[in-house]
Specification:
transport, 249 residues, ETF_beta_N, globular, electron transport, ET-Flavoprotein_bsu_CS
Length: 249
């Protein structure tokens, strides 16, 4: 069974980012970039399936600028067998990425596609669902447990009322939640081995996909700074203050 995993290059989760002076976007100059944490969980799950003898090959895929090769090398160091980069300098939006992944799915014909449920830079939570719709595949989102047996996948996911289990016929699309697993620590020997693993680079044009942005960002601004608090002498003063603030609203 072949498994395809999509990974995205984003600003590191531990870095505080700011907005550009012209309010056109987030300032990523001199910012540390890493693999999207949810995608790291997806890679870990795919590698565990291969280590369990269920999957035979894990393919890591990324769409974006040339520097995404670094993110793919991280996926290879975790345990992916080979990688594919769809290189483009366009601002790739979820629909464009879904179309690129659909083209790669048609080419590679994996039995399972695993993605992070969302990226921490835009929080769109759309790519997995769009891919499933474009490819006509069953899907399970926010997976907290995945089991593969007999040509089907059983996916447990948390919902408002508790949890539910979905049975999907393969091939299928699964997006990962934080509770699915804890990614392994990437060791130096595996980083060195990853440098020798195959990494293919293709262009969107070669896949027959138009990645022209469909949405335009008008303005990006930081949230307003929190105003200073007010001290009151006692509970009575607090109640009066709350009443005054409520009337002002």
């Amino acid at each position: 069974m072949k498994v395809m995993v999509a990974v995205k290059r984003v600003a590191d989760a531990n870095v505080k980012v700011g907005v550009k002076s012209d309010n056109t976007g987030v300032d990523l100059s001199n910012v540390k970039m890493s693999m999207n944490p949810f995608d790291e969980i997806a890679v870990e799950e795919a590698v565990r399936l291969r280590e369990a003898g269920i999957a035979t090959e894990v393919i890591a895929v990324s769409c974006g600028v040339a520097q995404c090769q670094e993110t793919l090398r991280t996926a290879l160091a975790i345990g992916a067998d080979r990688a594919i980069l769809v290189e483009s300098n366009e601002d790739l939006q979820p629909l464009a990425v879904a179309k690129l992944l659909k083209a790669l799915h048609d080419k590679e014909e994996p039995q399972l596609v695993i993605l992070g449920k969302q990226a921490i830079d835009d929080d769109c939570n759309q790519t997995g669902q769009m891919l499933a719709a474009l490819a006509g595949l069953p899907q399970a989102t926010f997976a907290s447990k995945v089991s593969i047996a007999g040509g089907s996948a059983t996916v447990e996911r948390e919902v408002d009322g508790g949890s539910e289990a979905l049975l999907l016929n393969l091939p299928a699309v699964v997006t990962t939640d934080l509770r699915l697993n804890e990614p392994r620590y990437v060791t130096l020997p595996n980083i060195m081995k990853a440098k020798k693993k195959p990494l293919e680079i293709v262009k969107p044009e070669a896949l027959g996909v138009d990645v022209t942005p469909r949405l335009r960002t008008l303005k990006v601004s930081e949230p307003p700074k929190r105003s200073a608090g007010v001290k009151v002498p006692d509970a009575k003063a607090l109640v009066e203050k709350l009443k005054t603030e409520a009337k002002a609203l």
